[in-house]
Specification:
Elements (H helix, E strand, L loop, with lengths): L1 E4 L5 H12 L4 E4 L7 H6 L7 E4 L2 E4 L1 H11 L10 H36 L5 H8 L2 H12 L12 H15 L10 H11 L2 H14 L3
Helix pairs in contact: 1-3, 1-7, 4-5, 4-7, 6-8
The structure holds glutathione.
Length: 212
């Protein structure tokens, strides 16, 4: 049995859940926070979420987990075999986990996390400075998408799954993408958010985080 630990609103946790859902794997999700407790460190040596167990095998880090899942459960693959395509898919996952996350999840953390976990109001100056960086990621992605439905090989890969996880937080925050300025990105993200398993999980999350 697969058990995934972490908060639903984490883009890294959501990335893993998207893959579990896409592959239609049986799993349980346990809500857990990052922690330096010995029990958590035992499964996640950096104390971060997500971490996962598959039977008695424990592993952490979203990118490690999804690569493991793709190897062990190869139906509905998310990673291409061909080396250039594989590198591209892993690159967009990295770009999403770092640059996109720093901006979008940075804002999400201020709005959602600061009041709940740091007992303070969101810092509007931090939010403003991150909003000003939207064009950096939008321009790059616009150029990469070029009217395609998916980023790599015209089929859904980890590249799109990782970005969908980040943009779910972006849309949940009430932002929209200016389709005049970034038509490809607006269309691309709209397509992603309407893929069945993505849409369903985002809806389910809303119920899970109610009252959090
Ligand atoms: N590279 C990791 C990043 C995971 C991560 O940073 N998770 C955050 C929550 S969204 C966390 O646990 N932060 C606590 C910490 O950094 O100690 C992954 O892909 O899973």
């Amino acid at each position: 049995m697969i058990t995934l630990y972490g908060l639903s609103v984490s883009l890294y946790v959501r990335k893993v859940r998207f893959v579990l859902e896409l592959k239609n794997l049986d799993y349980q999700h346990i809500i857990a926070l990052p922690s330096q407790s010995p029990e958590v460190l035992d499964k996640s040596p950096l104390g971060k979420i997500p971490y996962m167990t598959d039977g008695d095998f424990a592993l952490s880090d979203s990118t490690v987990i999804v690569q493991y899942l793709d190897k062990k459960y190869p139906h509905q693959p998310i990673l291409p075999q061909e080396p250039h395509s594989l590198a591209k898919a892993l690159w967009f996952d990295e770009y999403s986990d770092t640059k996109v996350s720093e901006i979008i999840s940075g804002i999400f953390f201020e709005r959602f996390g600061a009041p709940r976990f740091l007992n303070r109001e969101p810092d509007e100056a931090i939010i403003k400075s991150k909003e000003m960086q939207f064009p950096v990621i939008f321009n790059y992605l616009e150029e990469q998408i070029q009217g395609k439905k998916f980023l790599v090989n015209e089929c859904l890969t980890l590249a799109d799954i990782s970005l969908a996880s980040n943009f779910a937080n972006f849309f949940n925050l009430g932002y929209t993408i200016d389709a005049e300025q970034w038509p490809h990105l607006a269309q691309y993200t709209d397509n992603l958010m309407n893929i069945d398993f993505i849409k369903k999980l985002i809806e389910a999350e809303k119920v899970e985080i109610e009252g959090f």
